[in-house]
Write a structure and sequence with these properties.
heterodimer; A: 315 residues; mainly alpha; two-stranded antiparallel sheet; 2 strands; disordered N terminus; B: 311 residues; 77% helix; disordered C terminus
């Protein structure tokens, strides 16, 4: 197939008619990706929607006969939205995101701006140190921090105990923020690197001009670097929102350590348990679809909000 | 010749120009650039931040040298009776060397999946950047939607679909989804738009090269920085992935390291020696990626710049 495509394009006189059969070549390049994309994104989503509309119907006396599948309409969705634990899990990740994302992005931005003013060698070593946790898988990071939270193993609890503090990292009020700490630890350095990359792309003449105008390091950072780092901040913001809604591995690993993390601590955990512990894949499918909907509404919403503001600012 | 020089090299001179410029500022002898209290404070704060990021890793290094008793009985941030090799050999020999299988699987999933995802994303991104064809906008919008949709929300439906297709609990169940990187396509498109010159393609076509040969010889080379970035993203993403293999796999010989270690961690309640093995395994599992992070962060950074300039 590839040879015929190329031969045909080659035979176009002079090659200047590059649009002779561009569709065919373009689709040739796209096909493998598009096929797999359909199989791993579009089809599962469609299948989930389909499954979410079904429900097993028991037949025979006392409902002991073989179960058949019946059309349930929106019953599964209604059921999911009536479960207070499922709704609470959404409230929990929203609260989590409202606190964790700003804290992490502030930290990332501060580190990026600070590194940008440092001399080369220092910045390199520190940047590597901040970025290192990104290479630690989320579950491993959670296992690690789990050890650091549990009294008896944790040197942190040990040390704080010596100065008279007895923090209960896994207690009811704290565990959500202990999980937030794990997520910040994992991703602050990565986000910092995205922002650093953006800062490096700023034309040097701007700094030159600012210095001639007598701007201080601080003024340069706030007035020039920060506004120009905006695309990177938007990018990291969107990815953080998506990441927050996916929250799964961290609470799952922390769960055995404390009774305050439940089976439906996050929406993802809830859907997982519905499917594999309660064996109700139809309800699980409905919960997955709801989660996907909320995730796209929030990430698209954030993007259009930011873009609208950008357009207004540009005017 | 000059045509094929990738504009990708740009970030590098830009970065070095920055360095020489800061150095030049210092040599100006401007007193404000000397060691000021505010600068000492800045370095102090940055050092504290470094301690925060390194502390758990340091704890892991120390803990991996301890006996099970030492893990619970001694102060976590200092060594006591190190028995490192003994611990690590236990990790590898436990349960007929299952840790080797997990390592092999992680390398397979992340290496093969990452490489194929990169190639597919490169081809798709290039096509979206260079050709004008019907359906182009539709494909790009679908890709963007794919970027914005959390992959874990899809893992569960994907499991239902894959088990229908008889693919659940096979290597394919993890490999196939790993080959798809919408973000990679997005990045490659932006990069190809900036870096693949139309003149180069024209020249190659005049010389009689077919579209596939142009892509295979010229374009792939021009896009190398973007492709390296995509590969790294995808490799780390797959290596760190937990939800997908958890949902898809039931045979623990097919597990990647992440999944395997959590089975040890959860079984440690009943088999306390597994605490030590979990710690040792965690230490071993972050070695390759930590090393890669340190070596590759520079390259990674220059690739990211290209992606985010227009993004």
């Amino acid at each position: 197939m590839s040879t015929t495509t190329s031969r045909r394009t080659t035979s176009a006189p002079g090659g200047s008619r590059r649009s002779a059969r561009p569709d065919r070549a373009a689709w040739g390049f796209l096909l493998p990706f598009v096929a797999l994309f359909l199989f791993t994104f579009v089809l599962p989503l469609g299948y989930a929607v389909y499954q979410s509309l079904l429900t097993p119907v028991r037949s025979g006396p006392l409902g002991l006969g073989p179960a058949t599948l019946g059309f349930a309409g929106l019953d599964n969705y209604a059921l999911a939205l009536q479960q207070s634990a499922f709704l609470e899990s959404f409230a929990r990740v929203l609260l989590f995101g409202l606190v964790q994302i700003p804290v992490m992005l502030l930290l990332s931005t501060a580190l990026a701006l600070a590194l940008d003013t440092l001399s080369h060698r220092w910045a390199g070593i520190l940047r590597a140190a901040y970025f290192l946790p990104y290479g630690v898988p989320g579950v491993i990071a959670s296992i690690l921090w789990g050890f650091l939270y549990v009294p008896g193993v944790s040197p942190i609890v040990d040390l704080l105990g010596k100065v008279g503090l007895a923090p209960d990292f896994l207690g009811y009020d704290n565990v959500l923020w202990s999980i937030a700490n794990i997520v910040i630890w994992e991703f602050a350095g990565y986000n910092m690197l995205v922002i650093v990359a953006q800062l490096k792309a700023i034309p040097q003449e701007l700094y030159e001009a600012a210095r001639i105008d007598g701007a201080s390091t601080w003024q340069t950072a706030v007035r020039i670097k920060l506004p120009l780092a905006r695309p990177a901040l938007v990018l990291t913001g969107v990815f953080s929102i998506i990441g927050t809604l996916q929250l799964f591995a961290e609470p799952l690993v922390i769960k055995p350590l404390t009774s305050t993390v439940t089976n439906s601590y996050t929406p993802n955990l809830s859907a997982y348990n519905e499917a594999f512990a309660n064996n109700n894949i139809y309800l699980a499918a409905a919960e997955s679809v709801i989660l996907a909907l909320v995730a796209s509404v929030l990430s698209f919403g954030f993007l259009s909000l930011v873009n609208r503001k950008e357009r207004r600012d540009a005017r | 010749m000059s045509v094929s020089t990738p504009p990708a090299e740009k970030p590098v001179p830009a970065a070095s120009a920055h360095t020489s410029q800061t150095a030049g500022t210092r040599r100006d002898g401007r007193p404000r650039r000397g060691v000021k209290p505010s600068r000492i404070l800045l370095v102090a704060l940055l050092t504290i931040a470094a301690l925060y990021f390194l502390l758990p890793v340091y704890w892991l290094v120390v803990a991996s040298t301890k006996s099970s008793a030492g893990l619970f009985g001694t102060f976590g941030l200092w060594f006591s009776d190190p028995q490192w090799l003994d611990n690590l050999s236990k990790v590898f020999s436990y349960s007929d060397g299952i840790f080797w299988s997990w390592t092999f699987n992680s390398v397979l999933y992340a290496g093969v999946g990452g490489a194929l995802a990169t190639l597919l994303a490169g081809a798709a991104g290039y096509a979206l950047a260079v050709y004008r064809f019907r359906g182009r906008e539709a494909v790009f919008k679908a890709v963007l939607a794919g970027v914005l949709l959390p992959s874990t929300t899809l893992a569960l439906p994907m499991y239902l679909l894959f088990s229908k297709a008889g693919l659940a609990n096979t290597y394919w169940a993890v490999l196939i989804p790993s080959m798809v990187s919408p973000f990679g396509v997005y990045l490659c498109r932006i990069y190809a738009e900036a870096a693949v010159p139309a003149e180069m393609l024209e020249a190659a076509r005049v010389d009689g090269a077919g579209e596939w040969r142009i892509f295979g010889t010229l374009v792939l080379r021009t896009m190398t920085p973007a492709l390296v970035t995509v590969f790294l993203f995808q490799f780390v993403g797959i290596w760190n992935n937990y939800f997908l293999p958890l949902v898809m796999l039931s045979d623990d010989r097919k597990y990647p390291i992440t999944l395997g270690l959590t089975t040890w961690q959860t079984a440690a309640d009943r088999t306390p020696e597994l605490y030590q093995l979990t710690v040792g395994g965690a230490f071993l599992s972050i070695l390759p990626l930590a090393a890669a992070m340190l070596v590759l962060q520079r390259y990674w950074r220059s690739g990211l710049t290209q992606g985010s300039v227009k993004g």
